[in-house]
Amino acid sequence: MNVPTVADLFANGQTPEVLFWVGCAGSFDQRAQKITRAFVTILDKVGIQYAVLGKEEMCT
Fold it and tell me: What are 4-48's pLDDT values in tens digits?
């Protein structure tokens, strides 16, 4: 699964339509990771350009 980061898109002169904030649960909890992957699959299938913060994202 290839999930773009905001930094990657900005480096290519692109701006995402949606910033997908994954959060702590979506990153670390195994059950929530399934939801995160499913949401990314949906975004890909409907053609929405999105990005995550990647290493810039912090847990709240």
Answer: 999 999 999 999 999 999 999 999 999 999 999 999 999 999 999
- Could you tell me the CA-to-CA distances from 48 to 5, 24, 30, 41, 42 in Å, in that order? 14, 23, 25, 11, 9
Range list of H helices, 1-60: 6-11, 23-28, 30-46
**Residue of 59, 60, 49 lying closest to 20 (CA atoms):** 49
CB of 40 within 8 A of CB of 20? yes
Residue extents of the structural domains in the chain: 6-56
